[in-house]
Amino acid sequence: MALPPQDTVTLSPPAPGPAGRPASPGDEFEDRPVPLTHRRPLRSVSSVWFGFPMVLTNAVFGGVIVFNLGFARGMAAILLGCLILGGYVGALSHLAGRTGDTFARIAAVTFGGHGARLASAFLATVVIGWFAFQVGLTGATLHAALGWPTRPTVLLAGVLYVAVAWAGIRALSVIGWIAAPLYLVLGAVAIALALRDASPGDVLSYEGQAPAGGALAFGACVTMVVAAFIDSGTMTADFTRWSRNGREAVLAALTAFPVANLLALLVGAVVVGAGAAAEPATAGGDFLGLLTGRGGLLTAAAVVFVFANLGSVSAHCLYNAAVGWGQLTGVTMRRLVPFIGLLGLAVALAGVWEHFETWLTLLGVFVPPIGAVLLTDQLAPGAAGRPARRGLRPVPLAAWAVGAALATLVHYQGPQYCEAAVGLLAAALVQFAGARLGRAPRGPRAATRDSARGTAPATARPAP
Fold it and tell me: 455 — phi, psi (to 5°)?
């Protein structure tokens, strides 16, 4: 994807906070653009995003995909999904770095004030489920690998991850710097152990083992890659608004998609291709079992890895949810984090991690059209600087609905295709066509009527 030209935002000096207080170093700026004086360097924002997809869940998904498609076709599906995410998240990040605004504030320009509340509430709620999924997966993973009791482990993990999210963007940056190197080092160790009994040639020639009638289609596997991070990817502005400009925001996003995401999925793919996965059909390339039982030091490192790794993505998702609901309710992020975390913890204790396929389907169908509409609307010529409107803008909402409806149809009637890509394209086309129709010149009768009234003829309608 070509990088946009270097650009800088035009913002006022540090904006006063709620109740007129000046912006402080710990301010999260949920209700206004991040001032230039508070923006963060590329390495800091990159660490937030780069560590995000370096998660054990991606090893699971990478392994499941290769188990179903074989290594060569599976890696093709993984690469295509990563490229789709890279273009999507990168473009949305450019908007965020250019303006310094949260997702909710950017969405208000496209959907209108009330319409943006609908989109923001949907995404801020969906991402709570992803937080719950990762918290639950922490307990399930440590139970399977080491026999830890599931519910107490889930409770401990939930408390730790809430604390990280409460600390804000700085803590997310720190845990990203911890989680990503741990994943790379222990992933490399797992691959080395897996290749003790298999050669690289065995991995490359692996043809998959899914039963003929039950194997996932290529398009479904691409959707799995896209859906895994499409929710927080759509809300990327909550992270990349801290970038100094649009170009650095794009670069920060690209460190995650495709780079870190591809590496994380590749580890699971190789583990399954080498025949070293315990349950490749359901647990994919979960490599924790390869690390445990090989001495106290490696086992201890594996435990730290699980908490840092799954904690990174959990805290990111909780931060997304709290910033989103903070924009909707006027309550600060730090006040919301404990309450939202408690809700997510309750969902995790109910066993949400056992339904990840259904969860990914929901994300792949309903979320991508939102970002497609935002990009089509705000990257159009003359869109920069357009203020948000109150109420609803019907065309963007209709485009979201059409994109989601067609993606749902493809999911049930054409599983060989990628429903996420269909939803993206359909929503973008409807938004583009609707905007063009809304700006179409009016006919001669309207011009004659304007002339009779003594008013200047209007050549175009306002954007719908």
Answer: -110, 155
Q: In the predicted model, what is the mean pLDDT of the chain? A: 86
| Position 251, amino acid | L
If you count them, how many residues does the chain have?
A: 464
* CA atoms lying within 13 Å on the CB side of residue 208: 21
User: What pLDDT band is residue 444 in, cutting at 50, 70 and 90?
Assistant: low
Whether the pLDDT of residue 448 is over 70: the answer is: no
Res. 451 pLDDT band, cuts 50 70 90:
very low
User: Nearest to residue 204, comparing CAs of 260, 259, 266, 263?
Assistant: 266
- Among residues 446, 437, 440, 441, the alpha carbon closest in space to that of 394 is found at 437
Tens digits of residue pLDDT in 88-104 = 999 999 999 999 998 88
**From the CB of residue 91, how many other CB atoms can be counted at a distance below 10 Å?**
21
- Stated as kind and residue range, the H or E segment containing 438 is helix 419-438
DSSP class of residue 352 equals G
What is the DSSP secondary structure assignment for residue 34, as one 8-state letter? P
Q: What gap in Å lies between CA 237 and CA 98, rounded to an integer?
A: 10
Asked whether residue 329 carries a pLDDT value surpassing 70, the answer given is yes
- Compute the distance between CA of residue 398 and CA of residue 115 in angstroms, rounded to an integer: 11
pLDDT in tens, 236-259: 998 899 999 999 999 999 999 999
Alpha helices in 241-293 (DSSP H): 246-254, 261-273, 288-291
The rounded distance, in Å, linking the Cα atoms of 306 and 283 is 15
> Token digits for 50?
């780069």
What domains are there in the chain, each with its CATH number?
Answer: 44-371 (1.10.4160.10)
**Secondary structure element (H or E) that encloses residue 85, with its range:** helix 71-99
Q: Which two tokens stand for residue 219?
A: 């398009």
Nearest to 56, CA basis, from 239, 332, 302, 391: 302
* Nearest to 302, CA basis, from 131, 141, 62, 133: 141
Joined together, the tokens standing for residue 149 give 């009791």
Measured CA to CA, the distance from residue 273 to residue 207 in angstroms comes to 8
Residues 6 or more apart whose Cβ sits within 8 Å of residue 54? 179, 180, 183, 184, 260, 263, 264, 309, 312
User: How far apart, in whole angstroms, are the C-alpha atoms of residue 173 and residue 45?
Assistant: 7
